[in-house]
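Annotated sample (chain length 258).
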Amino acid sequence: MAAWSSPNDPATPVLWIDAQDASMWTLSGDTITAWSNKGSEAAGETVGGSPTRESVGGLVAVNGLDGSNYLEQAGVGGSFGGAATVVAAYYPLQTGISYLFDAGEAADAAETARLYRDSANLTASMTDTGASANAQDSGDNASGWNVCAWRVPAAVDRVELWLNEGAKVEHAVASLAWANGDQFAIGTVPPGGSGGLIAIGELVVYGSDLSDAEVANGLLYLAARWQVTPPTISKVPNVRRFDASMQEGYSEPYFRRF
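Output written by the structure step:
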């Protein structure tokens, strides 16, 4: 395994937010007034409220993200086909529900994809009319930086969540046909806005399902940049699968070396 040298290594991302790159942010003091996407979707970036770019946990981050303060990119959702991958570095700032991202159809709030944190549980969700899938993992660092990945594989009805150490949680729902739309919000759930406080250091979105090895190498890249311990991932140690009700689950070894 080898960490990415940059998020362009596995593929060109459609969205890449990097708080450490001063060139992509327009500021008034610490307040973000405009931003430019480092990914391929080069238009449609907006700012809601007054998020800031400032030090969080010793590293420069997009801070103050909540229901009223957020970033949005109007074209990214339309770049997804039947698959997508997101890798991110985040810092929890409260125990209530806080959103890393929400992607969905502006005309249909029932069709969404989300990654959010709720009382130290990180949850990856995907919803289509009449069906939903959620993968949840617990035990992130509640007072420090974390890295994670969210993935929807092509032609497979499931959503996956990877957290810090590389453990993968997946949840499948039969006959789930996800159709996403034209909005991608960071730090809130539009329209109207909801969500608790969270800081994001880096968030990278691909309109395809990266391989297990590529996702793990992405976590290595983020862990090194955002000082997450342990900074290396030698294998994906475990897969946990949950039934549709999220009430029962089972584990199986997943000692696939890359």
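Annotation: The helical segments are 212-225.
Annotation: The chain has a mean pLDDT of 80.
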